[in-house]
Amino acid sequence: MAMGRNLRRWVGAAGVLAFVGLALFGARHLRDESDGHTMVYGRDPALPTLTFYTTGFATTPQLPFWEALGSGDILEYCNIRVVLWKNLDDLRGVLLAGKGDLWLGHTEGFAQAHAAGAPVTLLLISGWRKFHIVTRDPALQDIDDLAGRDLPFAPADSPAVFVLTALGDAGAMSIRFQPHEPRQLALLLHSGRVDTALVPEPLASTLLSRDASLRVAGSVEQWYGRRTGGPARMPIAGMAVHRETARRHPELIAHLVAAMAAAAQRLQADPQVGVAALPPAFEAYIPREIVTRSLERDPVLLQPAAAVADEIDGYLRMLMPELMASARSPMADPAFLWSPP
Hints:
The chain has 341 residues and is α/β, with parallel strands linked by helices.
């Protein structure tokens, strides 16, 4: 189907996340690396230095990293060089070239990069809830109520649409999906020409903060849990490690995962600590109040990849059935999911 083909066209790890951020807040902050694009933490010459590629447009998935870094737990074991990639083509090239040691991104992006030969090992999952129905229609209480209706959505390659189509019965399949760019859809909602939409975070929190008449009428992840009989979550995003980095520094990588897992536990008790741990420069990408609001629907949860292997496998088989059924399936490679040494 056309949507499946669009989804399987790899737009890069964290593609949806970055695309929404760029569309809403602009690209004026994306600079060349030589112009403040890199941040360095720790300068101990006795410790290795790991390079982490991420984006200022990410919210929940990277909060445990920044909390663990700010607390000093990570810097006990290594120095960190943080590089903010410039655009999706830049990130795609970084992954395929094997540049860096750690990457933040979407699970399916890592799977497709692995299938293309990138030295990618999925380290952990830290992004579980992202896609929400926002509406001002009082009759709409759940995703199932959308049967037979138009449903504008953004961005145009949203995985959420494929989830609803792949798992939906005749009712879900009868939804008339209408793709939009994020900024365009935000304007349609604001003007009243559209009263219901399917959007990801942080777009959902941005819309809710600007229009008090909008509310959340359900998440795709809750619906996914009901349909699969599993938890109300999807292994959407997380962190991957360069295969050679994991091989050269197995104890170090295990320490990093443990530090981030401990940080995630602290953030579950007080998520605002994680927001405060974000670099001040990130305020220029997504305002902190929007990050805080997104945590109301996108709770902090970190799981090592191997601990949720079945969830990852089921999620990828739904999103990429052809790849997962082929010899290039990442789940057929024991090195794709990181396991503690």
